[in-house]
Amino acid sequence: MTATVPTSRVSTLVVTAVEQPTDRVRVLHLAAPDGGVLPGYSPGANLQINAGGKWNSYSLTGLGIAPSEYSVGVLDQGGGSRWIHGNLAVGSEVEVRGPENAFAPDLSGRRVFLVAGGIGVTPIVAYARAAVFHGWDLEVVYSHSAPEDAFAAELRELTTTAGGRFTEVGHRDELTAVLTDRLQRQPLGTRAYACGPEGMIELYRSVAASQGWPDERLHWEHFGVADLPPGSAFEYRVAGDPDVRTRRVEPGVSLLDALLGEGRPAPYLCRQGVCGQCRLEVAASAEDLDHRDHVLDDTEREAGDCILTCVSRGTGNGILEVTLP
Predict the structure, then answer these.
(1) Fewer CB within a 10 Å sphere, N or C end of the chain?
(2) Is 18 within the bounds of a domain?
(3) What pLDDT score does 170 carry?
(4) How far apart are alpha carbons 72 and 51 in whole angstroms?
(5) Residue 265 confidence (pLDDT)
(6) Residue 57 predicted with pLDDT over 90
(7) Residue 250 sits in which domain range?
(8) Regarding predicted confidence, which is higher, 1 or 131?
(9) Taking residues 203-225, what's their average pLDDT?
(10) Domain named 2Fe-2S ferredoxin-type: which ranges (predicted)?
(11) Are 40 and 136 within one domain?
Protein backbone atom coordinates (compact mmCIF):
# COMPACT_ATOMS: atom_id res chain seq x y z
CA MET A 1 0.00 0.00 0.00
CA THR A 2 1.53 3.33 -1.04
CA ALA A 3 1.58 6.12 1.50
CA THR A 4 -0.02 9.52 1.08
CA VAL A 5 1.96 12.47 2.42
CA PRO A 6 -0.34 14.42 4.78
CA THR A 7 -0.70 18.20 4.50
CA SER A 8 -0.92 18.89 8.24
CA ARG A 9 2.81 18.65 8.91
CA VAL A 10 6.20 19.26 7.39
CA SER A 11 7.03 16.55 4.83
CA THR A 12 10.23 15.71 3.01
CA LEU A 13 10.12 15.40 -0.77
CA VAL A 14 12.84 14.58 -3.29
CA VAL A 15 13.73 16.62 -6.39
CA THR A 16 13.22 14.22 -9.31
CA ALA A 17 13.79 16.62 -12.22
CA VAL A 18 14.81 20.22 -12.87
CA GLU A 19 13.97 22.24 -15.99
CA GLN A 20 15.24 25.70 -16.96
CA PRO A 21 12.74 27.28 -19.40
CA THR A 22 14.39 30.72 -19.10
CA ASP A 23 17.59 32.13 -17.61
CA ARG A 24 15.79 33.16 -14.41
CA VAL A 25 13.11 30.49 -14.02
CA ARG A 26 13.60 26.92 -12.84
CA VAL A 27 10.88 24.29 -12.70
CA LEU A 28 11.27 21.75 -9.90
CA HIS A 29 9.55 18.37 -9.91
CA LEU A 30 9.15 16.92 -6.41
CA ALA A 31 8.00 13.45 -5.35
CA ALA A 32 7.60 11.42 -2.16
CA PRO A 33 10.72 9.39 -1.27
CA ASP A 34 8.71 6.16 -1.57
CA GLY A 35 7.05 7.23 -4.82
CA GLY A 36 3.66 7.39 -3.10
CA VAL A 37 0.65 9.43 -4.12
CA LEU A 38 0.79 13.02 -2.86
CA PRO A 39 -2.16 15.01 -1.48
CA GLY A 40 -4.33 16.41 -4.25
CA TYR A 41 -5.12 20.07 -4.78
CA SER A 42 -7.21 22.42 -6.90
CA PRO A 43 -5.90 25.08 -9.33
CA GLY A 44 -4.32 28.05 -7.57
CA ALA A 45 -2.82 26.00 -4.73
CA ASN A 46 0.56 26.83 -3.20
CA LEU A 47 3.30 24.63 -1.82
CA GLN A 48 5.54 26.07 0.90
CA ILE A 49 9.21 25.12 0.53
CA ASN A 50 11.90 25.45 3.18
CA ALA A 51 14.41 27.52 1.22
CA GLY A 52 17.50 27.60 3.40
CA GLY A 53 15.56 28.28 6.58
CA LYS A 54 12.96 30.59 5.05
CA TRP A 55 9.55 29.24 4.03
CA ASN A 56 8.58 30.47 0.55
CA SER A 57 5.27 29.76 -1.20
CA TYR A 58 5.18 28.65 -4.85
CA SER A 59 2.16 27.94 -7.04
CA LEU A 60 1.69 24.37 -8.21
CA THR A 61 1.35 23.99 -11.97
CA GLY A 62 -0.08 20.48 -12.29
CA LEU A 63 -3.62 19.13 -12.48
CA GLY A 64 -3.67 18.12 -8.83
CA ILE A 65 -5.74 14.93 -9.09
CA ALA A 66 -3.95 12.05 -7.27
CA PRO A 67 -0.57 13.56 -8.20
CA SER A 68 2.59 11.46 -8.20
CA GLU A 69 4.67 14.66 -8.18
CA TYR A 70 4.43 18.38 -7.53
CA SER A 71 5.80 20.91 -10.02
CA VAL A 72 6.61 24.52 -9.17
CA GLY A 73 8.17 27.36 -11.14
CA VAL A 74 10.74 29.42 -9.22
CA LEU A 75 11.84 32.85 -10.44
CA ASP A 76 15.30 33.85 -9.22
CA GLN A 77 14.58 37.16 -7.54
CA GLY A 78 16.79 36.88 -4.48
CA GLY A 79 16.15 35.49 -1.01
CA GLY A 80 14.80 31.98 -0.73
CA SER A 81 14.22 31.71 -4.47
CA ARG A 82 17.90 32.33 -5.16
CA TRP A 83 18.77 29.70 -2.55
CA ILE A 84 16.59 27.19 -4.42
CA HIS A 85 18.32 28.03 -7.71
CA GLY A 86 21.74 27.58 -6.17
CA ASN A 87 21.20 24.59 -3.90
CA LEU A 88 18.52 22.22 -5.18
CA ALA A 89 19.29 19.64 -7.87
CA VAL A 90 18.05 16.20 -8.84
CA GLY A 91 18.27 14.00 -5.74
CA SER A 92 18.07 16.87 -3.24
CA GLU A 93 15.69 16.46 -0.33
CA VAL A 94 13.53 19.42 0.63
CA GLU A 95 11.03 20.13 3.39
CA VAL A 96 7.56 21.24 2.29
CA ARG A 97 4.21 22.21 3.79
CA GLY A 98 0.87 22.11 2.04
CA PRO A 99 -0.67 22.31 -0.46
CA GLU A 100 -2.89 25.19 0.63
CA ASN A 101 -5.19 27.24 -1.58
CA ALA A 102 -6.35 30.85 -1.28
CA PHE A 103 -6.98 31.19 -5.05
CA ALA A 104 -9.29 28.25 -5.76
CA PRO A 105 -11.74 28.24 -8.69
CA ASP A 106 -15.49 28.50 -8.49
CA LEU A 107 -16.51 25.19 -10.02
CA SER A 108 -20.00 26.41 -10.94
CA GLY A 109 -18.69 28.18 -14.05
CA ARG A 110 -18.18 26.48 -17.41
CA ARG A 111 -16.11 29.22 -19.05
CA VAL A 112 -12.95 30.84 -17.69
CA PHE A 113 -10.98 33.88 -18.83
CA LEU A 114 -7.41 33.72 -17.53
CA VAL A 115 -4.87 36.55 -17.27
CA ALA A 116 -1.22 35.91 -16.35
CA GLY A 117 1.61 38.35 -15.74
CA GLY A 118 5.25 37.31 -15.39
CA ILE A 119 5.81 34.41 -12.99
CA GLY A 120 2.12 34.77 -12.07
CA VAL A 121 1.67 32.40 -14.99
CA THR A 122 2.25 29.38 -12.73
CA PRO A 123 -1.25 29.12 -11.17
CA ILE A 124 -2.75 30.06 -14.54
CA VAL A 125 -1.09 26.97 -16.06
CA ALA A 126 -2.85 24.88 -13.41
CA TYR A 127 -6.14 26.57 -14.28
CA ALA A 128 -5.61 25.83 -17.97
CA ARG A 129 -4.94 22.15 -17.19
CA ALA A 130 -8.18 22.03 -15.21
CA ALA A 131 -10.06 23.63 -18.10
CA VAL A 132 -8.85 20.91 -20.46
CA PHE A 133 -9.69 18.17 -17.94
CA HIS A 134 -13.18 19.47 -17.09
CA GLY A 135 -14.07 20.63 -20.60
CA TRP A 136 -14.40 24.30 -19.69
CA ASP A 137 -14.40 26.97 -22.39
CA LEU A 138 -11.10 28.83 -22.13
CA GLU A 139 -9.43 32.08 -23.14
CA VAL A 140 -5.97 33.16 -21.95
CA VAL A 141 -4.01 36.43 -22.00
CA TYR A 142 -0.33 36.20 -21.00
CA SER A 143 1.65 39.40 -20.37
CA HIS A 144 5.44 39.09 -20.11
CA SER A 145 8.71 40.61 -21.24
CA ALA A 146 10.38 38.93 -24.22
CA PRO A 147 13.08 36.96 -22.36
CA GLU A 148 10.75 35.87 -19.54
CA ASP A 149 8.25 33.71 -21.41
CA ALA A 150 8.34 30.68 -19.11
CA PHE A 151 5.40 28.35 -19.76
CA ALA A 152 4.28 30.29 -22.87
CA ALA A 153 4.48 27.28 -25.20
CA GLU A 154 2.81 25.00 -22.66
CA LEU A 155 0.03 27.48 -21.97
CA ARG A 156 -0.55 28.00 -25.69
CA GLU A 157 -0.79 24.25 -26.24
CA LEU A 158 -3.27 23.81 -23.38
CA THR A 159 -5.43 26.64 -24.66
CA THR A 160 -5.42 25.17 -28.16
CA THR A 161 -6.36 21.75 -26.79
CA ALA A 162 -9.32 23.36 -25.01
CA GLY A 163 -10.34 25.01 -28.28
CA GLY A 164 -9.70 28.45 -26.82
CA ARG A 165 -7.90 31.67 -27.72
CA PHE A 166 -4.38 32.48 -26.51
CA THR A 167 -2.91 36.00 -26.65
CA GLU A 168 0.57 37.17 -25.66
CA VAL A 169 1.20 40.84 -24.92
CA GLY A 170 4.19 42.91 -23.89
CA HIS A 171 3.88 46.53 -22.77
CA ARG A 172 1.13 47.96 -20.56
CA ASP A 173 -0.70 49.88 -23.30
CA GLU A 174 -1.09 46.68 -25.30
CA LEU A 175 -2.38 44.82 -22.24
CA THR A 176 -4.90 47.58 -21.54
CA ALA A 177 -6.26 47.37 -25.07
CA VAL A 178 -6.44 43.57 -25.05
CA LEU A 179 -8.15 43.39 -21.65
CA THR A 180 -10.67 46.05 -22.66
CA ASP A 181 -11.53 44.13 -25.82
CA ARG A 182 -11.59 40.63 -24.29
CA LEU A 183 -13.47 41.44 -21.10
CA GLN A 184 -16.29 43.16 -22.95
CA ARG A 185 -16.66 40.17 -25.27
CA GLN A 186 -16.98 37.47 -22.60
CA PRO A 187 -20.33 35.64 -22.50
CA LEU A 188 -22.57 36.03 -19.47
CA GLY A 189 -21.45 33.69 -16.70
CA THR A 190 -17.74 33.73 -17.55
CA ARG A 191 -15.46 33.80 -14.53
CA ALA A 192 -12.17 35.70 -14.79
CA TYR A 193 -9.00 34.77 -12.92
CA ALA A 194 -5.76 36.76 -12.93
CA CYS A 195 -2.37 36.39 -11.28
CA GLY A 196 0.55 38.77 -11.69
CA PRO A 197 2.29 41.80 -10.21
CA GLU A 198 0.26 44.32 -8.26
CA GLY A 199 0.20 46.88 -11.08
CA MET A 200 -1.22 44.35 -13.53
CA ILE A 201 -3.91 43.29 -11.08
CA GLU A 202 -4.93 46.91 -10.51
CA LEU A 203 -5.25 47.34 -14.28
CA TYR A 204 -7.26 44.11 -14.62
CA ARG A 205 -9.68 45.17 -11.87
CA SER A 206 -10.02 48.68 -13.26
CA VAL A 207 -10.80 47.51 -16.79
CA ALA A 208 -13.24 44.89 -15.50
CA ALA A 209 -15.04 47.50 -13.38
CA SER A 210 -15.33 49.79 -16.41
CA GLN A 211 -16.97 46.90 -18.28
CA GLY A 212 -19.49 46.31 -15.50
CA TRP A 213 -18.11 42.99 -14.28
CA PRO A 214 -19.69 41.94 -10.95
CA ASP A 215 -17.27 41.26 -8.11
CA GLU A 216 -18.41 37.65 -7.70
CA ARG A 217 -17.12 36.75 -11.19
CA LEU A 218 -13.76 38.48 -10.78
CA HIS A 219 -10.90 36.68 -9.03
CA TRP A 220 -7.24 37.56 -8.62
CA GLU A 221 -4.00 36.87 -6.80
CA HIS A 222 -1.01 39.17 -6.93
CA PHE A 223 2.58 39.14 -5.79
CA GLY A 224 5.39 41.63 -5.38
CA VAL A 225 3.70 43.93 -2.89
CA ALA A 226 5.65 47.17 -2.65
CA ASP A 227 7.90 47.71 0.36
CA LEU A 228 5.82 48.98 3.25
CA PRO A 229 6.88 51.77 5.63
CA PRO A 230 8.17 50.40 8.95
CA GLY A 231 5.34 51.89 10.98
CA SER A 232 5.38 52.56 14.70
CA ALA A 233 6.36 50.24 17.52
CA PHE A 234 3.36 48.70 19.27
CA GLU A 235 2.53 46.22 22.01
CA TYR A 236 0.42 43.07 22.06
CA ARG A 237 -0.51 40.17 24.27
CA VAL A 238 -2.09 36.79 23.55
CA ALA A 239 -5.63 36.20 24.82
CA GLY A 240 -5.87 33.39 27.35
CA ASP A 241 -2.11 33.20 27.87
CA PRO A 242 -1.10 32.61 31.51
CA ASP A 243 1.75 35.03 30.87
CA VAL A 244 -0.12 38.34 30.86
CA ARG A 245 2.92 40.43 29.97
CA THR A 246 2.74 42.57 26.86
CA ARG A 247 5.29 42.16 24.07
CA ARG A 248 6.77 44.98 22.04
CA VAL A 249 6.96 44.82 18.23
CA GLU A 250 9.59 47.13 16.77
CA PRO A 251 9.13 49.23 13.61
CA GLY A 252 9.69 47.14 10.48
CA VAL A 253 8.87 43.86 12.27
CA SER A 254 5.52 42.23 11.49
CA LEU A 255 3.16 40.92 14.14
CA LEU A 256 3.39 37.55 12.40
CA ASP A 257 7.18 37.44 12.79
CA ALA A 258 6.87 38.49 16.42
CA LEU A 259 4.43 35.64 17.10
CA LEU A 260 6.52 33.09 15.22
CA GLY A 261 9.63 34.30 17.02
CA GLU A 262 7.96 33.34 20.30
CA GLY A 263 7.14 29.90 18.93
CA ARG A 264 3.43 30.69 18.65
CA PRO A 265 1.33 28.60 16.20
CA ALA A 266 0.36 31.59 14.05
CA PRO A 267 -1.11 30.67 10.64
CA TYR A 268 0.16 32.22 7.41
CA LEU A 269 0.68 31.54 3.72
CA CYS A 270 1.48 34.40 1.33
CA ARG A 271 3.14 36.95 3.69
CA GLN A 272 1.85 39.69 1.36
CA GLY A 273 -1.58 40.48 2.76
CA VAL A 274 -3.47 38.95 -0.14
CA CYS A 275 -4.57 35.45 0.89
CA GLY A 276 -6.18 35.99 4.31
CA GLN A 277 -4.62 32.89 5.88
CA CYS A 278 -2.92 34.85 8.69
CA ARG A 279 -6.13 36.54 9.86
CA LEU A 280 -6.51 36.58 13.65
CA GLU A 281 -9.17 37.90 15.99
CA VAL A 282 -8.01 40.95 17.91
CA ALA A 283 -9.46 43.07 20.68
CA ALA A 284 -8.73 46.66 19.68
CA SER A 285 -10.33 49.78 18.30
CA ALA A 286 -10.08 50.85 14.67
CA GLU A 287 -7.68 53.62 15.75
CA ASP A 288 -5.31 51.00 17.19
CA LEU A 289 -4.86 49.16 13.87
CA ASP A 290 -2.85 50.02 10.76
CA HIS A 291 -4.48 47.81 8.10
CA ARG A 292 -2.23 47.22 5.07
CA ASP A 293 -3.82 44.12 3.55
CA HIS A 294 -5.85 43.54 0.38
CA VAL A 295 -8.46 41.29 2.01
CA LEU A 296 -10.55 43.13 4.60
CA ASP A 297 -13.35 45.43 3.47
CA ASP A 298 -14.10 48.82 5.03
CA THR A 299 -16.69 47.39 7.43
CA GLU A 300 -14.24 44.78 8.73
CA ARG A 301 -11.53 47.39 9.17
CA GLU A 302 -13.80 49.75 11.07
CA ALA A 303 -14.92 46.95 13.41
CA GLY A 304 -11.39 46.61 14.79
CA ASP A 305 -11.83 42.93 15.65
CA CYS A 306 -9.43 41.24 13.22
CA ILE A 307 -5.98 41.75 11.71
CA LEU A 308 -3.86 40.18 8.97
CA THR A 309 -0.65 39.71 10.89
CA CYS A 310 1.75 39.40 7.95
CA VAL A 311 1.44 43.05 6.86
CA SER A 312 -0.90 44.92 9.20
CA ARG A 313 0.19 46.18 12.60
CA GLY A 314 -0.71 48.27 15.62
CA THR A 315 -0.47 52.04 15.51
CA GLY A 316 1.05 52.25 18.99
CA ASN A 317 -2.07 53.91 20.43
CA GLY A 318 -3.20 50.87 22.40
CA ILE A 319 -2.33 47.28 23.28
CA LEU A 320 -3.54 44.61 20.84
CA GLU A 321 -4.94 41.42 22.33
CA VAL A 322 -4.78 38.68 19.69
CA THR A 323 -6.51 35.30 19.80
CA LEU A 324 -4.59 32.37 18.35
CA PRO A 325 -6.44 29.42 16.77
Answers:
(1) N
(2) yes
(3) 85
(4) 13
(5) 84
(6) no
(7) 234-323
(8) 131
(9) 88
(10) 234-325
(11) no
